[in-house]
Amino acid sequence: MSLKSLIPAIILYLCFDFSHQRESYEHELVKGVSTVDKDWDFLIFTQNWPGSVCKAWTHNKPNHHCVYPNKKDSWTVHGIWPTKAGTKGPFSCNTTWLFDPEEVRPIETELEQAWTNVEKETELYNLWAHEWNKHGTCAAMIEPFNGQLKYFSKGIDFLKQFHMTDMLNAADIIPSDVKETNAEDINNAVVSKIGKRPVIECVFEDGVQYLLELRICFDKQLNLMECLGEKEVNGLLTNCNISKGIMYPTQLPPPKRYLVQLHKFVNWLQWFTL
Ligand SMILES: *[C@@H]1O[C@H](CO)[C@@H](O)[C@H](O)[C@H]1NC(C)=O
Ligand SMILES: *[C@@H]1O[C@H](CO)[C@@H](O)[C@H](O)[C@H]1NC(C)=O
């Protein structure tokens, strides 16, 4: 094969790999890792808080908007990530088995609520395609995940079974744009329900840390286990600064009063000058 004929393939690969901007921070690709070794030890089930995903997506980007699930206090699935202890990934275990919307058609409306692509300006299937192609094809090594419908249905099941909204609410941790929460209370809320520490992920914007993700882990028999290889600070598995409060923001988009005023003014001006 000539180099020339490879170029379109390389470009396609790059587009595919960088298509999902939000996860650029999720897992750094470890260079030099053998692509043959697709073995993994456990699964990370990640839920994200749409209000914080939105903060990151819209930060300094006035033309970015967010899609929320209908239930405004609902956490949503980010993904189910097969992981080899002490590493990230494996990733993209079968590059010919690409996401196909037809495969998940029977559960599509459920997925929109449970596995919401918050980032409105991305393609409708961006998140699902990314999660399946990168992680699902590796999870497919075990029977409960060996198909797209199975992988995504399991995400919905896990969400119902381990819904963070319920665990946090039970500990009086509720979304607020004023009052902050903290990593220890979040950890205790989850531990009191499932007996395992969650991984608590923050995203940082303008000196504020927002509660972005809560991750729990399963072994290959789908029994809960503690996530391996996570950074531990004072008994908490987190990237958040544990000596600071954590914002768990509401999902209401900020009112665009300025734009509404401008719109009214333009309307008035048009009327006036006609
Ligand atoms: C990749 O997926 C395709 C389509 O499902 C399948 O036919 C093939 O056997 C898979 N390859 C590997 C190496 O698992
Ligand atoms: C965490 O927050 C405290 C209090 O604001 C600050 O003094 C400290 O430098 C922060 N730690 C890190 C690692 O950012």
In short:
This protein is of the alpha+beta class and about 270 residues long. The chain is about 35% helix and about 15% strand. The protein has 9 helices and 7 strands; from the N terminus they run αβαβααααααβββββα.
Number of domains: 1
Judged by helices, strands and strand pairing, the structural class is alpha+beta
Biggest sheet record: 7 strands, mixed
Question: What is the C-alpha radius of gyration, as a whole number of Å?
Answer: 21 Å
How many beta-strand segments? 7
Uncertain residue segments: 10-34
Nearest-integer average pLDDT: 87
User: SSE order in H/E notation?
Assistant: HEHEHHHHHHEEEEEH
What is the count of DSSP helices, taking H or I runs of 4+ residues?
A: 9
CATH architecture: Alpha-Beta Complex
Strand share of the residues?
A: 5-15%
Enter the CATH topology name.
Ribonuclease Rh, Chain A
The CATH class name reads: Alpha Beta
Bound molecules: 2-acetamido-2-deoxy-beta-D-glucopyranose
Q: Determine the N-to-C terminus distance.
A: 66 Å
* Percentage of residues assigned to helices: 25-40%
The CATH homologous superfamily corresponds to: Ribonuclease T2-like
In one word, what is the shape?
Answer: globular
Protein name: Ribonuclease Oy
GO cellular component, one term: extracellular region
Keywords: Disulfide bond, Signal
InterPro entries: Ribonuclease_T2_eukaryotic (IPR033697), RNase_T2-like (IPR001568), RNase_T2-like_sf (IPR036430), RNase_T2_His_AS_2 (IPR033130)
